[in-house]
Design a protein that fits this description.
This protein is an all-alpha fold. The chain has a single domain, classed as de novo design (two linked rop proteins). The chain is 77% helix and 0% strand. It comes from Actinomadura montaniterrae.
Length: 179
């Protein structure tokens, strides 16, 4: 009789231990997903700042007509100084301004033909615009995975996310300029 009681106690200790290990594993995974979201957001912010800097450099390069330079500089400044609530709109406006400037007839040939600086500015702008698209895709993928993990019943029943806010997607118009 005592033997069966000891076996039962050991069995339940093992079950509690395994459940604890599983819950700990899920909490650690969720924490890693949140860290991944934060890291991807930092990379996205860096790419957006780099694109705005490239747009400002193009606007200040005297390679564009004054009206296009003013539109581009204003959009880049708004994108750099926008608060969190207006950031997506400001970045989309910068994307549209870049496309409006670069979609002018023979834009790349004119700017690149102005000297060595024009080709360098265009290369930097093209590179930074492509990096924004990649960074936004990686960020949104990380957000989707974190949101999916937080929808699991165990995560909701046992508040394993703690006080971490639910991450939001970053949706902007990031079609690259036609360079």
């Amino acid at each position: 009789m005592l033997y069966h009681w000891i076996i039962d106690v050991l069995f339940w200790i093992a079950v509690v231990f395994l459940v604890g290990v599983y819950v700990s594993w899920r909490a650690t995974r969720l924490d890693r997903l949140h860290v991944r979201v934060e890291t991807a957001r930092a990379a996205l912010d860096a790419a957006l700042v780099r694109r705005a800097a490239a747009a400002l450099e193009l606007a200040a390069s005297r390679l564009l007509d004054p009206a296009a330079s003013l539109v581009l500089a204003t959009a880049a400044h708004e994108a750099r100084t926008a608060d969190a609530d207006n950031r997506e709109f400001a970045e989309s406006d910068l994307s549209r301004a870049l496309r409006a400037v670069t979609d002018q007839p023979d834009f790349a040939g004119t700017v690149a033909g102005e000297g060595g600086d024009g080709a360098d500015v265009l290369e930097e702008l093209s590179s930074s615009a492509a990096k924004v698209a990649y960074a936004r895709r990686f960020y949104n993928d990380a957000v989707a995975q974190a949101r999916a993990a937080r929808r699991k019943p165990l995560i909701r029943v046992l508040p394993l996310a703690g006080r971490a806010p639910l991450p939001d997607f970053f949706e902007i118009d990031d079609d690259p300029p036609g360079i």
